[in-house]
Amino acid sequence: MRTKTLVTGPKGFVGARVMDALKCAVPAPSLRNVDEDGVKRLVDEVQPDLIIHTAAVSDIGACAKDPEGSYRANVLLPLWLARTGVKAVLFSSDQVYGGCKGEGPYTEDEAAPENLYAREKLEMEQRTLDANPASVLLRAAWMYDMPIYGVKNRGNFLMNMLRSPSLSFSSTEMRSVTYVREVAGLIAKAAELPGGVYNYGSENELSMLETAKWLANELNLSITLSDAGPRRNLWMDTAKLKRNGISFLSTVDELRLCISDYALKDR
Ligand SMILES: NC(=O)c1ccc[n+]([C@@H]2O[C@H](COP(=O)([O-])OP(=O)(O)OC[C@H]3O[C@@H](n4cnc5c(N)ncnc54)[C@H](OP(=O)(O)O)[C@@H]3O)[C@@H](O)[C@H]2O)c1
Q1: How far apart are CA 197 and CA 224, in angstroms?
Q2: From the CA of 56, how far away is ligand 1's center (Å)?
Q3: Fewer CB atoms inside 10 Å of the end CB: C or N, the chain?
Q4: How far is the CA of 255 from the centre of ligand 1 (A)?
Q5: 32-42 burial string, b = 16+ CB within 10 Å, else e?
């Protein structure tokens, strides 16, 4: 039997790549002004076997400016979807590790959110799992890609590196930056995971400054990189994901893949 998949946020940064990867998925309409009854009506109408939920207020600053609106989008909307009883894969974030004090990498039970967005994501994880224990919560890393036709582009590591004459990254900040095409490519496998929370992104043994220097060197970029920025650490341990049969490439190998996909060395 083919899985009928409903994708929320199908024109968003992640959702558009998920739609590309799954080919026959059903795009949800905008859920900005929809209440719980509206969510139920949509699910009754589409009758999906699976929901991939990417719609959210994903900008940390926008959440801080509109706490009520972002709570509705980032906590209540996913909760309403989980309450329909359909299995859902929902996006959380590595930001939940922002207040962790240890060196990392962090396992799924070590979250310590520091900002409103991260607190909403953590509450969303807990409440969707309570409502439907089959829910799969993916703590995604900072994702990048080149722009695609018809989809609003957002600032990301790769585009920032290609466009900026100078940037600062910290030599003490450990985190993954992940190629969104790999995130989308693995989503069908992620849907088969047992319900729970998973760190979901590439493995990075390099600091953010080292990662940026690697990319600048690989693409021969004229960019000045300086060592500054947060001392925070969002380093994810992906052992749980691997035990369950899903492995990401390393951050450097994903960057190599993206460089090859877009022939960036020929640009
Ligand atoms: N991008 C990253 O690097 C990153 C990193 C970690 C985690 N995440 C998480 O991954 C998921 C996808 O992120 P993304 O970058 O693809 O997000 P995005 O492009 O910023 O937004 C996805 C979609 O959400 C919908 N949306 C925006 N505001 C909404 C609201 N108030 N209520 C309901 N829907 C709203 C929009 O669709 P419509 O215009 O059709 O309403 C938008 O296209 C999110 O949960 C995000 O928090 C992203």
Answers
A1: 38
A2: 4
A3: N
A4: 23
A5: eebeeeebeeb
Tokens of 14: 């992640």
1 pLDDT higher than 70: no
Answer whether residue 96 shows pLDDT above 90. yes
Backbone angles phi, psi at 6, to 5 degrees: -100, 125
CB of 10 closer than 6 angstroms to any ligand 1 atom: no
SS3 19: helix
Render pLDDT for 44-62 as a digit per residue (tens, 0 to 9): 999 999 999 999 999 999 9
pLDDT confidence of residue 267: 75
Question: What does the pLDDT average to over 16-21?
Answer: 97
- Distance (angstroms) between ligand 1 centre and the Cα of 220 equals 32
Ligand 1 in contact with 73 (CB < 6 A)? yes
Taking a C-beta distance cutoff of 8 angstroms, is the pair 121, 93 a contact? yes
Residues 4 and 26: beta-carbon distance below 8 Å = yes
Establish whether residue 248 lines the binding site of ligand 1, counting it when its CB lies within 6 angstroms of any ligand atom: no
pLDDT of residue 188: 97
Q: How many whole angstroms from 96 Cα to the centroid of ligand 1? A: 17
57 ligand 1 Cβ < 6 A: yes
Q: What is the mean pLDDT of the chain?
A: 96
Q: Where are the chain's structural domains? A: 5-266
